[in-house]
Queue: 3 jobs
Job 1
Amino acid sequence: MLKVFMVEDETVIREGLRDKIPWEQYGFSLAGEASDGEMALPMIRRLKPDVLITDIKMPFMDGLSLSEIVKEEFPRIRIIIISGYDDFEYARQAIAAGVDRYLLKPVTRAALRGVLLEIREKIEQDAEQMDYQARYQDEIREFEQFSLRRFFEKMLDGKLSVKEIYEEAARQSLELTAGCYNLLLFSIYEKKERDSLEEQNWLAGQQEEVFHFFLRHPQYVLFRLNVNSYGVLLKADESQIAELMQRGLDHIRRVCAPQEGRLEWYAAAGEPVTRLSLLPDCYKAANHFFACRFIWPDIHILSGRTLAGRLGEPDETHIGDVDFMRMDPEIIRDFLARGADAEIPEFVESYLQNIRNALKSRMFCDYVILNIRFAVVAFLEAIGAKREQYLDGMERAVAMIRREETDLSSYFTEMLRAAMKARDAISSYQGGKMLKKALDYIDTHYDCETLSLNMAAESIGASASYLSAVFSQGMQKTFVEYVTEKRIEKAKKLLRQTDQSSGEIARAVGYKDAHYFGFVFRKLQGCSPREYRAEAARRKEKR
């Protein structure tokens, strides 16, 4: 319900409007009233009404002066002036003060009703537009993150040449030229999954506070690493890169450390490199440190410095030096619960780092093998896995190590992969029906401009956070990524097969704004809708 504040020095008129107008019937509530502008102003500042109704001539502060001050402080407030003066100069001044309507006394109930309903409609339209703009900005940011994620995946895997890196960076409007580079990886999530919207918003707020720091400084490039983790590329002169890294780590600590009772958070720093072509090496170092969050969960900032002494040379370790607390089966179970398949090699290396020399003892090596096997089986039993879901993969690994066809690292890796395959199969089965419902919902609503994760979740009776997790795991992409790809594929078909304009196609696939449609299309296809149509026509002619 919209709030109205009324200012009128004539008591009879003020009380008449207050008592005879059915405010709630028109969608309003009378939040307050005052006899002059001076008394009204502090009340308006406190109540923040949506609509101000004020007389134009009053003692102490008149309606025009009050309107000017209120419009300056609250630009979105709607103002109705009522006056006994049919004078063009008053009307001109009212318009200059930002007044929406100018009514002459005596004000009839029918006239005020018409104005109130008109203003309510404008306020609702403005709110709808603001909501659309907010979603528009959120989608732009998420889509840019989607695009960046693909770029960084290829670059950090060493799949792009330096020339290709600069070409793709130009398409992404990224300036990557610098004297030195480094990578920071981080993950922030709640220790206990929560379903209420308020609790989900709290976590999102913590993440946003971390993101905002990196987004507002051009020396950092924030990107999504995977479903649960993020990366930041640091670029600066060699003399500044260490300070830049420290500032980023300090910010994450400052936001997250006070919430350690509720948050799990980790950040890992790579080793600086002076060439873009060396970033895969930098990523390997950062990812190695990042995997240590499972081994040493009490260390939140993971780097060569904070892990010094823990990542010793293998030949320095003897059985008597082994810290058996670091071989707790819970570490393996925790990794299987929250880790990703791509992290397995680094986790295995970190887990075995300090015991490699001790593994020369056959007895100790057998102990480690049993420890790994028991931990993996215990995890699989806990999540309800059936033996046939993981037995083949595990038995192959066991047989290979018994025949000495593989080393412990490879055995450990195969065991984890078999377990994760079973884990993902179970997750897929449990979330499969929900995911199918969500995909069906998207198929029938992708052309709706208001389509959102919350709408889809509500339609299938799930929380947005749970659907997001199921969707990301099952589809290996976010909800927005999937919807965007579906819309663009449909748009490409319409561009090839119809003569519809870009604006018409944008609306047909769910984009209210044709400019935003063009932006998304170019980001995904590398060309504008018009260029795509022209190229498709040329190819058709050649055939």
Job 2
Amino acid sequence: MTSQLDPITVEVIKNSLIYASEEMGVALRNSAYSPNIKERLDHSCALFDRDARLIAQAEHIPVHLGSLPWGLLRTVEIIVRDTGAPEEGEMWVVNDPYISGTHLNDVTVIRPIFFRGALAGYAANKAHHTDVGGMVPGSMSAGAPDLFAEGLVVPPMRLVVHDRNVAATIALFRANSRTPDARSGDLRAQTAGNYTGERRFQELCERYGIETLRAAIDKVLDQSEMRMRSALGRMRQGTFESEDVLEDLDGSPSIRIALRLTLKNGSAHFDYGGTAPQLPFPMNAVYGVTLSGVYYALRAVTDAAIPMNEGCFRPVSVDVPEGSLLNPRRPAAVGGGNVETSTRNADVVLGALAQAAPDRVPAQSGGTMTNVMIGGTRADGTPWAFYETNGCGMGARPGMNGIDAIQCHMTNTLNTPIEAIERDYPLRVTRYEIVEGTGGDGRFKGGNGLVRALRLTQGSARVSLLSERHTVEPRGTGGGKNGACGRHTLVHADGTEESLPAKTTFEFEAEEMLEVQTPGGGGLGNVTSAKR
């Protein structure tokens, strides 16, 4: 075995695992039913070893960076506690945020991988299901008072036994969704992704032998740890403070996230003491989501070429008070924490890192995913549900302007193509364009936000909006100007306009139009020396 563990073998195994996780995502996407997964790619895939250590994760959704490993470890602990051990031919499904680590829409499917009768690893993926029940279509209401109002809560349960789908589990998801066919179809797509990961992992076991594979994985994790420690050590050492705010339901900027970052001897400690207590509405972020914000910002500011695995974050510790906004107690509602609070946390972490590595951190980006959920019934009575996030302006970067209308920081999804929207939903896109002048001015300009207008063509619907930066502008840096705030407008059938809050739910009638405008990014550098 020792003679086989040369650097070339380690490198081949490392890259084979990475590409296997990417191939899992291709299989999932190609098999998916819902536009949110098939078109927007709102999913993430990863491989783990038999000890539930992350060994490879595809470059999919940043908010899943920390939550997928965190959730898999807790799910495996429950499986072992309740059944003794995972069994060959099984898959497990879970969406309980306090176990799986994000929010109810994100459904995690886990496949224990066996080789010659012994547990060798796990394939896992997480995908955003457009509707899992709850008080509003899309299952993300700004007004949900607790987890139970947000939708179906599924603890770890078997989705596949002896390589056959468990009909009762699929029926449970179907019975609790406004769009049952998409739910069962997307679950089958998730199983396809895991089968792909399993095949590739087993091929490596067969080719190199399980002992060589395990030794190579240990080496890869150690290399990632070494590279991360080196990158952290090259930053300015010391303690750095950063804070920012989320906007309350009434728009007031009153919800504080506070951070003390300590960089010392190649390690990073994040202390969130002083952060607001948990809230009675869904802006709370479970601990797995908080980890994701930390991990994303670190990878963005250090060395993106470091392989994403458990070794990357051995030098990182995160302390979040229990019962706070970023580590709530069950059953606090968490639907918006995964999308909006995660984004603000990334802003706060980047703000601290900017003090240690100012030449690597941009001005603030738009700072919101601008979540739009619409659902109702068509004229023939059939139900439907639509969900998407919208791009905003990226903050100006050191030496470069920001990018217009892009999904920033914690989301890495695409938009929903106009053709897909108008094919699958009773909606017509009447406007979709970049809004010039919304990016902050400066030596380097912030990216502009976008505007997307949707008209309901038939039936009736309910809209839920969940966004940020309608009151507090994205900050410029180094003399750069702030980006513009976002705004929502409802245009009634008679042409009158109504301004809408950032977080709201309302009834939507045929021929009415919803117009969503996203924030721009902050500028960088003194405006007097601005140049394009």
Job 3
Amino acid sequence: MSAYCLLESITCPADLRRLDRKQLPQLATELRAFLIESVAQTGGHLSSNLGTVEMTIALHAVFDTPEDRLIWDVGHQCYAHKILTGRREGMGRLRMHGGVSGFPKRSESPYDTFGVGHSSTSISAALGMALAAKLKGEDRKSVAIIGDGAMSAGMAFEALNNAGVADADMLVILNDNEMSISPPVGALNNILTRLMSGKTYNAARQAGRHMLGFAPPLLELARRAEEHVKGMIAPGTLFEEFGFHYYGPIDGHDLDALIPTLENLKKLKGPKFLHVITKKGQGYKLAEADPILYHGVAKFEPGKGIQSAKGAGKLTYTQVFGDWLCDMARVDSRLVGITPAMREGSGMVRFSAEHADRYFDVGIAEQHAVTFAAGLACEGLKPVVAIYSTFLQRGYDQLVHDVALQNLPVVFAVDRGGLVGADGPTHHGTFDLSFVTCIPNMVVMAPADEAECRQMLSTAYALDGPSMVRYPRGAGCGSQPGTDLATLPVGRGEIRRRGKDVALLAFGSTVTAALAAGEAIDASVANMRFVKPLDVELIVEMAGNHSLLVSIEENAVIGGAGSEIERVLAERGLHVPVLRLGLPDRFIDHGEQGQLLAELGLDKDGIVRAIRARAAGQ
């Protein structure tokens, strides 16, 4: 007999809605067990998904999905939703090439009403959907589910500010688990914690829960009574000031509280805000004890949990950055480190402990992080902003206007440059070389290996203007970075191999594959190092000695480094053909990094194949 008898009977939410309510706790038990077993086999986000099992069941039980729209913020908590909406059998290929995406994806299912991957978008999208339904005369509900970490972003408050006066029939559910990827920070988190921790307010919460369970004729009276009680305890509740009717907090793991509450809120018009308390890792003791460790996991054995890797393993670029940051901070008291809620992912845990007074986690607020760094730089400090490539996109206006325009010495340590693997198109860092290189005053570097990454960070820090060091996810070729703080000459590349006829001009993570391809076809290989300023002398030298130049970059080929090489040649009247290899003009799906690079022709064999095809006139 299957351990998932009830779960296996659910092929879509309509099946769930036909169950007796007394069966739903058993469904939650099976769903949670299936999540643990499934993610242990594939890897993925675990803690956040375990924390939203009951909420997901309740939402699909109450709302007529997909006609009613559920908009998940970020998407770290969408696995239970995917399982209940017909993708249970596909979970065995979660985040694998050609398999189920780790995030809501509109092209994957009609139940994924909005594609996400970055935080704090759900309220804006839900407002758009709610007002669209109103304009079209459709009786359709819109529900945004957002976490307390995502609520720290300015975009969420912009949406609340708009929704409160837009007369939108929508519901915002705050999934409050007191945790983002890094420990939550900021005034909002303190407000929520203070509201929840008081004994009086906890008593009011229980009273509110019972009131929301009343029959419809008494609901309005109950709501007014609840607001009166809350008004005495927490006057001027933040979300009510935005124009929302605020309800809660309620227990997000109690289906007997969740379902009646949602049923009643579904009948109410206007903007509503439900505060739900959940626990990350709920039902799996190891994840409950360390939800950060179990936030994003590789394959593991559920009975044993995540085991420490045996041996040191290869040093990652992220670790190289973290070590460099601590070393530089010891010799220069002006250094300050900034992260938008990615302390662990960006390698800043050690720095945050050793230099707590110079460590700033600004929450999920990339725009603020960049301008905050600019303000620090104005006062003579040396800010280092550790940020993922895909998240830097959110701070682009601030990068242009607040940092580069004022020529301020801010170092951007840009992690996850290029393809990142299983997280897919929302997390691939495929555009940064294109969108940063065009900005005046910026110096842009891409290391070929770990040792060069450390040298480039020191080079960037020594500059008296803005700079970016862009490095990939994971480890490189295994070079040892050392412990010194040596710099590189700005705008100078190097020739790694001399060959005949063809010259490969490689940037950053592509140098290793370029060297292997160069050996295969006896081509020259240059490690360009700097995307801006380009080593013009090196390009001209290569153009004079070779019949074909090949630019190679793990970045969008449109507007990338290869385009800049062509511009340099055109300005000097040099008519040497250039074969530009890079990422195509499309969003790249999820899959293992090496597999994706091979498919896109950026491994050794792909480079050789492209050069031979060009020589054959194909």
